[in-house]
Specification:
seven-stranded parallel sheet, mainly beta, single chain
Length: about 190
């Protein structure tokens, strides 16, 4: 549980880690107002290891961001990540340069992204999707947004082709936005 937690990382080569690192299958429950910012520039705000799943739920808020080239929630620069499931909370995820807001960082991959609840605002960095992959040879698997979400706002970074999906010179799996889902793409 994160309950009024503030983790603000310092961009320093001596601190080579994310704001929060999830090495296995993990669930984060949000209560109160929470801020998580990654440490060294190559890392995301919240990292989930490749082959594992992070689930985020609860009624609190989360502001997650990178300190450089990582996603707000997901992977980093040449640091691939696993699956991301959002079931609740009010979440703001901001990617660093060349990274998705939620998804992969620069030159990395991420697993499936599923948003089935809560209010989510995701903004990609330069050349990155709001939800999906970052820049240049980055990938993400399938993205699903269900009709149960309160609201999802995805904003692509400068020069990115998609708000939800692939970043510039990158690929993504199937994007499935269910009919009736409250989704805004900028």
């Amino acid at each position: 549980t994160l309950n009024n937690v503030k983790i603000v990382g310092e961009n320093n080569n001596s601190y080579k880690w994310a704001g929060i690192t999830c090495e296995g299958d993990n669930t984060i429950i949000l209560e109160g107002d929470n801020t998580v910012k990654g440490f060294f520039a190559n890392y995301p705000g919240i990292y989930i290891a490749e082959g594992h799943t992070l689930t985020i739920d609860g009624t609190g808020t989360l502001d997650a961001s990178s300190n450089g080239y990582g996603a707000g929630i997901g992977g980093g620069y040449i640091i691939s990540c696993g699956n991301i499931i959002i079931n609740g909370g009010t979440i703001t995820a901001t990617g660093g340069d060349y990274a998705g807001g939620i998804g992969s960082g620069w030159k990395s991959s991420c697993g499936n992204i599923t948003i089935s609840g809560g209010t989510v605002t995701a903004t990609g960095g330069e050349n990155g999707a709001g939800i999906g992959s970052g820049f240049y040879e980055s990938t993400c698997s399938d993205i699903t947004i269900t009709a149960e979400v309160e609201e999802v706002t995805a904003t692509k970074g400068n020069a990115a082709p998609n708000s939800i999906g692939a970043g510039l010179l990158s690929t993504c799996g199937t994007v499935n936005i269910e009919e009736g889902a409250n989704v805004i793409q900028n």
